[in-house]
Amino acid sequence: MLPVAQDEVITNAIVRVARLHRMLAGQLLRRVGLHPGQELVMMQLWNGGPQRQADLVQVLGSDAATMTRTIQRLEHAGFVRRCPCADDRRASIVVPTPASLALREQVERIWAQVEEQTVGDLTEAERADALRVLHRVEENLTRAITPAEGSGRPRTPGPPPGCPGAPPAGEH
Amino acid sequence: MLPVAQDEVITNAIVRVARLHRMLAGQLLRRVGLHPGQELVMMQLWNGGPQRQADLVQVLGSDAATMTRTIQRLEHAGFVRRCPCADDRRASIVVPTPASLALREQVERIWAQVEEQTVGDLTEAERADALRVLHRVEENLTRAITPAEGSGRPRTPGPPPGCPGAPPAGEH
DNA sequence: GCGATTTACCTGTTCGAACAGGTATCCCTC
DNA sequence: GAGGGATACCTGTTCGAACAGGTAAATCGC
Known about the structure:
By secondary structure, the first copy, chain A, is mainly alpha-helical.
């Protein structure tokens, strides 16, 4: 009869929801030939235009090594192109190809679908509640991962991923 | 001025929270020599006792191939032992080693710590809210992934992961 | 201008996630 | 008891995530 919900802890719920969510997105993305994670890169490119790999790493909170290979695969798949940066010969600019524009529409539809399935039958109030709670948890976790402001090398500095979802995606 | 929160969608929040959560757990688990995912197997073994790989696959909602290699690595690390099943010569029973008992304490402390950091400054009511919302989303996602009850081969049938967290872990 | 440091990218490696395919074993039916 | 199918496990593969290390280039200090 503790005031605590007897079933479980938030940690478990997060793990399960994350799994299901990733699974759902992965299923849908596979149909258009993308692996989970690649769509985030493409959406960043579509929204932000051509940019350096280092920028993508920072915005997406990813790893330089992971980004290198992800870009290589997207390049091989024909969705991006790389051209040397004029200002900085170390850098290469990643450019979404015209061929990727067909993908964009599909990916945006998939993300809308994932959101719809996730929200499901939640009322507007419940949905706002969910967002509020998730943000609180996100803040908590961000603080936990950056314990002493530089002692733990958080890898994902302040702005966690960037994520797609393109707000209401009013422009298309 | 729509009634919708203008910042974003639930999908994005879930992705970020999941990342941070996994990152936090991964950081802590690395200190005791475990990779994310291995702790779930160990906790299932500690709680449920020796069991077959197939049982672990079902309870954890994992993959038989992934489980094979995870068990191999845990065996190599000295945390589990495998002995042939007497009843079924196809099966092998996975047994947590006595050496793994020292790990158990550490892993349970880590999970408690993750939960504490995740909950953070949420009040009890907010925490209950979070759980309720996460369960709703989980239900939505489960329904989305199992669209026609057998057409999509959901891979994770009904009971998603099992997750550790050992309620209050009253016995130790 | 020269050397040290930082930055940008690449490669190698380990590990989980997921899929395909293979083998041994069990079980049910004929 | 001899198929046929299901089950349990293993292996090979691709991919993202993360870490370590390595090269080239830009930048800063002198």
